[in-house]
Write a structure and sequence with these properties.
The complex is a heterodimer of chains A (205) and B (262). With 205 residues, chain A is mainly alpha-helical. Chain A has one domain (10-196): Arp2/3 complex 21 kDa subunit ARPC3 (Orthogonal Bundle), CATH 1.10.1760.20. Chain A has helices at 10-27, 35-49, 66-73, 77-91, 100-119, 129-155, 161-192; strands at residues 53-56, 59-62. In chain A, strands 1-2 form a two-stranded antiparallel sheet. In chain A, helix 1 (10-27) packs across helix 4, helix 1 (10-27) packs across helix 5 (100-119) and helix 3 crosses helix 4. The longest helix of chain A has 32 residues, at 161-192. Chain B is mainly α and 262 residues long. Chain B folds into 2 domains: 14-138 and 229-250, no CATH class; 142-212, no CATH class. Chain B has helices at residues 14-17, 20-35, 40-56, 61-85, 101-126, 130-139, 144-173, 182-212, 229-250; strands spanning 92-94, 97-99. A two-stranded antiparallel sheet of chain B has the order 1-2. In chain B, helix 4 (61-85) runs antiparallel to helix 5. Chain B is flat. Chain B starts with 13 loop residues before the first helix and ends in a 12-residue tail after the last helix. The relative contact order of chain B is 0.17. The chains are: A mainly alpha (205), B mainly alpha (262). Chains A and B meet through helix 2, strand 1, helix 4 and helix 7 of A and helix 2, helix 4, helix 5, helix 7 and helix 8 of B.
């Protein structure tokens, strides 16, 4: 899911870069030396995992997994996603170089919202808690990004209203898919390597 | 899926020989100018220039075509959605839907600009070794931390791509077939989870190995840059082209989008 080159206008592109730089600076504060390779390596996993295709009917969609980045990296999900977007723009021409800022705000911002949801898990205690919260994080990340995308399209003019609505509608099935995959992955990580999950685990901890 | 963007960085051409610092700065400026064009004829000229730049890199066309396929697939829906949803007086109706030429014109403009930008960015990053491009970015005041993380991510992407392929092969060997159902999504969730656990364990080893080699938070490179007059000339040509495009675009010679074809 990207906004492509050539659609948005100058001020919106500039605002995207400014926003991305600000959020990146805020979410990368107090970065430990040890975190540099960690964030990078996990980014490459997401980069690779986003190549997985899920069949729906006659077509297929790529996983986005920005919700899962949030579940694993917390606030550091933003720089990770920004790195992924820069690389995609450079290597594949996905998105494009002038929309790196806007795309980072869109997908990274979605991840930050997802982390706010995921963080609440320590308040609850029930079976399959990680699945439920993971699924909510995955779904929130997708729909928040979809909203940012629709808003960005609308700034271009009313001519894009139809496209914005089509984009939002397309996000509903993706939201369900992302929710199911991120939920399953969060539950798996909780079983196998719970220290990888970001955020507090129990109220007392 | 070919991820090594710098596979053909050693082919000899004027673009490959261009100092990466000048190449990135000048062509990025050109890209930004193209992305902001508003008139169709100027965008078409920009596309021609982009194609010429790419041809002069001597990159094989099959190498570029993969990236282009994606852009085309991504943008094709615009050709359907824009004409049918453009507000205002429709030219005629197709099976009950209003069709506006203006929407088609906007879709074409976006398509041509996106394609031009992708062609140039292939020319920029396909014509230097990836680490050299990244170092050039650092010289152009891109934060060193970001550059370092990009290099790491790029390097480990290949490792995990191999790992993912191996895991997927063994999954299929055990009879897994992807369907559109909840079971498949659950399997994919576990698949990504496993990949994450492997990567996490690997980072710990990588970090220790780096520490033992004296890592202190910075990367050092043996690459040095030295600009020759030709680098300045090429950059100047790119800047002149970019400005010429923007000025013609804004001059009012051609009608801007939403006002007619030429």
């Amino acid at each position: 899911m990207h906004i492509s080159e050539g659609i948005l206008q100058g001020p919106v592109l500039a605002a995207g870069f400014a926003g991305a730089a600000l959020i990146a600076a805020a979410t990368m504060r107090k970065l430990d030396m040890e975190e540099i390779p960690k964030i990078s390596v996990i980014t490459s996993v997401f980069f690779v995992a986003s190549l997985i295709k899920v069949p729906i009917g006659p077509t297929s969609v790529h996983l986005i997994l920005n919700g899962l980045v949030a579940v694993v990296l917390g606030w550091r999900a933003f720089p990770a996603i920004m790195l992924g977007i820069i690389l995609q723009a450079i290597i594949f021409g996905h998105g494009g170089v002038t929309v790196i800022g806007v795309n980072s705000v869109m997908l990274g911002g979605g991840a930050l919202v997802a982390y706010m949801v995921w963080q609440q898990r320590h308040r609850f205690d029930f079976a399959r808690r990680e699945f439920i919260f993971g699924a909510m994080a995955g779904a929130t990340a997708t729909i928040s990004s979809g909203l940012v995308l629709a808003l960005a399209l609308l700034t271009t003019g009313e001519a894009f209203g139809g496209v914005a609505i089509a984009v939002l509608a397309a996000h509903v099935p993706i939201m369900l898919i992302e929710g199911a995959v991120v939920g399953a992955a969060a539950e798996f990580l909780n079983r196998v390597k719970p220290e990888m999950l970001a955020g507090r685990n129990a109220p007392s901890a | 899926m070919a991820l090594d963007i710098d596979r053909f960085a050693n082919v000899a051409s004027p673009v490959q020989r261009w100092d990466p610092r000048f190449k990135i700065a000048a062509l990025m400026f050109l890209i930004v100018c193209i992305a902001l064009l508003k008139t169709l004829p100027v965008a078409a000229v920009a596309f021609g220039i982009a194609a010429l730049i790419l041809l002069s890199t001597a990159l094989p066309l099959h190498f570029v075509s993969h990236g282009l396929t994606f852009v085309v697939v991504f943008l094709l829906p615009f050709f359907v959605v824009m004409p049918l949803t453009y507000p205002g007086e429709p030219a005629f109706t197709i099976i009950g839907l209003p069709f506006a030429w203006e929407g088609l014109r906007i879709a074409s403009l976006i398509f041509i600009k996106a394609l031009s930008v992708v062609l140039i960015s292939f020319a920029v990053f396909g014509s230097s070794r990836f680490d050299v491009s990244m170092l050039a970015l650092q010289r152009l005041k891109c934060p060193p931390l970001i550059v370092q993380m990009l290099l790491f991510t790029y390097r480990y992407t290949f490792v995990f791509l191999d790992e993912m392929r191996r895991m997927y092969t063994s999954m299929r060997a055990r009879g897994f077939v992807a369907h559109a159902d909840r079971k498949t999504l659950h399997v994919f969730g576990n698949f990504v989870g496993t990949l994450l656990v492997h990567s996490f364990e690997r980072t710990e080893r990588v970090y220790k190995a780096m520490l033992s080699k004296g890592y202190q938070g910075q990367l050092h490179s043996m690459v040095t840059f030295r600009a020759i007059p030709g680098d300045y000339v090429k950059a100047a040509i790119a800047l002149v082209i970019a400005l010429a495009l923007v000025i013609t675009d804004a001059s009012g010679v051609f009608a801007v989008a939403e006002r007619g074809w030429f």
